[in-house]
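Question (not urgent): is this output format expected?
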Amino acid sequence: MKIVILGMGRSGKAAKALLEREGHELICLDQPDGVLPENIDQIVVSPGVPGTHPLLQNAKVEVIGEMELGLRRLKQRAIGVTGTNGKTTTTLFITHALRCSGKKARALGNIGTPLCEYLLLPDEEEIIVLEMSSFQLETCSTRCLERGIILNITPDHLDRYEGFEAYAKAKCRMGEICKELYLGEGVKKIFETYSPTRDTQNYSEIDFCSDFGVNAHFAKKSFVPPAHRFELLRNLREVAFVNDSKATNVEAVCYALEKVDAPVLLLLGGRDKGANFAELMNYAKKVRIIFAFGEASAKIEMELGSKCKSFATLEEAFAAAAAEAKSGEMVLLSPACSSFDAFENYEKRGERFKQMVEELA
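Got this back:
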C-alpha cells in the first residue's frame, strides 16, 4: 500500500516504523500543506492533525489515526480509558492494580508511549491499558477492546471542536470499539444523546478491578499518583504551594477548588481552549486573588473581573502571588488552559512551577 502519514511527532514516527516493517510505501509530511500525492491508498494522521485540515477534507481515501492503526493489529486483551478529567490517573491505577495481582500489564496511548511503538515488540501476555484522548478516538472504529471506560465528559478542546456536541461525540466513540462499556457518573445521559444505544454499566473502580480478580483497596496502598495533579510541593512560611498543571480545563480547576479549605491565590492562564472561565465564579469565596497569565489573561480578566491581576508570563504571575500570599493560604497553579503559548506541554509548565517554588525556598 502507498500510505501518507500526516504529522511526524512521536505518534507519526511510531506509525512510520510499524508500516515500514510491514513493507508499505510511505510518504511522510511533518508540516502538512499543499496537495496530497496521487494514487495513495490510505492516510494515517497524528492526533494533533484535526479532521478539518484541508488535506483531509479533500481526501478520497480512508483516513485513520495512529491509534486505529495499532488497534487493527492488536492481538491481546486491552482496556480503553477516556474522559475529560482523570483518565491518566485511572489508566495508571488500573495498570498498577493488575500488576499487584500478579498480572502483566502495560499503560500505553495518550499517556506517553504510542500503541504502534509498543507493537514493534509486543508481549502478548500483557493486558494493555490504553489512555485515549478525543483526538485519538475521532478515527477509531475497530472493536477490539475487551472493556472501555468513559469517566466523564465536560466541555474541553473547544478550540478544536465546533462545540460540545462534536467533542462529546468523539469521546462516545469509545462505545463503538469495546465489547463492554463502563460509564462514570453523569455520562449515561450524554452517551445516550450522542451515541447509538447499547448496553452500558456504571463504572466503579472497586467493582471494575474485582471483575479482573484484583483487590483495588490493596493496590491503593502502594499507588503513587502521577505528578502535576494537585501535587503539594512545599509549605513555605505556612503557605502551601500546589502544582495542578494538568488542570487544562475549567472543570478540573473546579474539582481542585472543591478540595481546598484554605484561601486560594489562583494561577490561571495559558492558551485558551474555548473555556467559560465565568464558571469559576461559583468558587469566588474560596479564591482571594486570581493571577491571570499568558495568552488567555485578557479573556480571564474580562470574565472574572475585579479579583484578577493580569501578567504576561507564568513567572511574573508566580512572583506576584508568592509576594502576596499570607500564612494559612495556598498558591495554586491550576491553569484551566493548555500550556502551548509558552511550554511544550503541561509537564514542562509544572516543572517550571516546581523550579520556582524551590528557588523561593
